[in-house]
Amino acid sequence: MTTLCAALVSLSLGIPIAPLTSPQPPEPVKLLIITGDHGHDWKTTTRVFEEFLPETGRIQVDITTKPADDLTPENLARYDVLLLNYKDTANGAPETRWTDANKNAFLDAIRGGKGLVVFHHASSAFTKPNWEEFEKAIAGGWRAQGFHGPKHVFTVKKTAVSHPISDGMPSEFVHKLDELYQNSMIPPGATVLATAYSDPKLPRGTGKDEPIIWVATYGSGRVYQNVLGHDEEAMSSPEFREWMRRGVEWAATGKVTASPTQ
């Protein structure tokens, strides 16, 4: 009523009324996918990310396949969050190899508040010898002690923890044919958001609820690790995709905007 009265008074006095405007949606978070070398099919998995992550309009995706050129303080400053789809191998081209300057720029960016998403086998990068500070920054994972059995279908279960990434998500979902990572390194202070039971009746089964998705911090940076997604089929799971979108947004901003389907 107050608004209506004010509008009538304005009309009677000949005062123009400013049009009502809808609030503008927030700017999408700027994501840089770091790839270019891997023991897995990084070209296909990166393409899949490039296709589905921007679908909601919340994430803008750039890609570098040349970390030696692009892991610089100046370039990383352009982004809100980084996604690792990378593992150093003996076959990597010179432009994929991280120099000491690249390594320092990466750590400084996360430590200074840049978000980080660690995808699947990227947590095995820089082992033998082990780069200990990288291990801390990415919140552990596969490293040198992880393993898995044959790919199979399994159920992913949300833990009881309340967190912006998992709040509102289904309590569990049946995941596509994928590798179930086991014996992952979970550092002190990390929070596990989802697990999957490793059936001891299956090859290499542990009989444990294995951590699948967890979060941590490194300095001022938010870190999200998701070990699902070995290949394009595994990445086609709608639940996997929503967990990844939410993880990217949380790592960048500390908040999550629910998708229209949630």
From TrEMBL:
This one is known as: ThuA-like domain-containing protein
State a single Pfam family of this protein: ThuA
Species in which this protein is naturally found: Isosphaera pallida (strain ATCC 43644 / DSM 9630 / IS1B)
Q: Which InterPro entries match?
A: Class_I_gatase-like, ThuA-like
The highest taxon in the source lineage is Bacteria
Q: Which residues cross the membrane?
A: none
Domain named ThuA-like: which ranges?
A: 30-251
Question: What Gene3D superfamilies does UniProt report for this protein, alphabetically?
Answer: 3.40.50.880
